Amino acid sequence: MIDYVGITWDLDYDNSSGNEFDFDMSLLLKGKGFDYNNQQHKFKSLNGRGRQSDFLFYDNRWRILDELIYPDRDSAWKLTFKKGNWNYGSLVFDEDDDCNRWEGVEYLGNDGIDNNPKAYVIGDRGEFDTDFSGEGKLYIGGFDGRIHLYGAEWGAWRIDQTAYSFQGYGGLYDRWKGKGRMQQGVEKFAVIKYVDSDNNGFIDKMYYDLDGDKKFEDSVSLKQLGLDDIQPLFSSEAMTQVKAEERFKNITNNIWQKAALVIAIAEKHGISTDWYNFYKKPKSLHFEQDFIYSWISVGP
After folding, report:
1. Which of 161-175, 203-217, 255-269 has the lowest mean pLDDT?
2. How confident is the model at residue 153 (pLDDT cuts 50, 70, 90)?
3. Residues 6 or more apart from 97 whose CB is under 8 A from it?
4. Average of pLDDT values for 211-227?
5. Distance CA 212, CA 61 (A)
6. Residues with Cβ < 8 Å from 246, sequence gap 6 or more?
7. Dihedral in degrees, nearest 10, Cα atoms 55, 60, 63, 66
8. Cβ atoms 296, 266 nearer than 8 A
9. Which one, of 10, 294, 13, lies nearest residue 163 by Cα?
C-alpha cells in the first residue's frame, strides 16, 4: 500500500542549471492510500540466472527477478486521486522561494508547524485538513488572492521578511539528523494564523503577530466585516504542470495590480513610497509575489 503521497509543483517554472529542483507548493496526503500490487512491470535485461558469479553475492535473488511492482509516472497520479483512501491533507506554500528540494517544502514537525529538520525555520505557509473533509481541493482566497486548502481547520505563515532564513548548500546531513540548519538564525519573525471558525471549509479569520513577540495583537474576521468567505473550488488533480504555471501567473498578476493600487492610494494621501522602490522592480514572477507582501507587512 502507498499510504503517504507528496505532490509538489514548480509554479513559476524557474528551474535552471544548479537549481534543478525549485518547488513552490506541496500537497501531502496520508491515510490507507491505495494498493499497487497490480502495477507490474516485466523486464528481461536484468535477468542474471546462470551467471557464474552468482556465488559471490550474499543474496543473489535480485538477479533472477523478471518484474518490478511500482506505480510509474503514468499511473501514480490517477491512482493517487482515483483510488487513494486519504484521511489527512496539508498544503505548504514556499512563500520566500528558498526550497530547492521537494522535502524542503514539507513544513510539518512534531509540534505541528515549521519544526522539521529537513525544512526551514521560517518562510513557508502551511494549512492543515486533519480529517480530509476538503478532499484535497483548493481555492483562491478572496481576502488575499492566494492558494488555500479547502477543508483546512487552520494554518500558519511564519514570514521571512528579508530572507534571513534563506537555505544554503552544505550541512544537509546535519539538517537531516536534526543538528541544525545552514542558515542565519532568526529570533523574531511575524506570524499570521489562519482559522476556519465556522467549519465551512474556508478560512474566515486571521490572527496577526507582526512584532514577533509570539502574541497575536490583532485579528480580522471576514464574518464580522460582512464578507463572504466562500470561493470557487478547483481540484488538485487538475493542477497539471502547465495549468499550475498558468494559474500562478494569473494569481500573481492579479495581486500585483491590487498592490500597485494600494501604493497609488498612499501617494495620493501624501505618504512617501520611495522606501519601496526596490520592491517595485521584481526580477521574476515569484519575486512579484514576495515583494507584494514586503510592502504590505511593513506598510504603507
Report:
1. 161-175
2. very high
3. 12, 22, 24, 286, 287, 290
4. 93
5. 58
6. none
7. 130
8. no
9. 294
The grid cell for 114 is 515549521
Residue with cell 527477478: 65
CA dihedral of 90, 93, 98, 104, whole degrees rounded to 10: 10
How far apart, in whole angstroms, are the C-alpha atoms of residue 130 and residue 29? 10
Instruction: Compute the distance between CA of residue 67 and CA of residue 90 in angstroms, rounded to an integer.
Output: 34
> Phi and psi dihedrals of 242, rounded to 5?
-65, -45
Domain ranges (residues) in the chain: 2-34+76-239, 40-69, 240-300
Alpha helices in the chain (DSSP H): 76-78, 172-176, 241-268, 285-298
Instruction: Measure the CA–CA gap between 206 and 182, rounded to whole angstroms.
Output: 31
Determine the straight-line distance between the first and last CA of the chain, rounded to whole angstroms: 52
Spacing of C-alpha 139 from chain mean position = 14
pTM of the entire structure? 0.79
- Name residue, grid cell 518484474: 67
Q: CA 135, CA 234: separation in Å to the nearest integer?
A: 11
Angle of the 285-298 helix axis to the 241-268 helix axis, nearest 10? 40
Distance of alpha carbon 194 from alpha carbon 227, whole angstroms: 16
Average pLDDT of the segment spanning 218-236: 95
**CB burial class (10 A; 0-12, 13-18, 19+) of residue 262?**
middle
| Single-letter amino acid, residue 189 | F
Q: What is the pLDDT of residues 6-57, one digit of tens each?
A: 888 888 776 666 666 677 888 999 999 999 999 999 987 665 556 677 778 8
Res 65 pLDDT > 70: yes
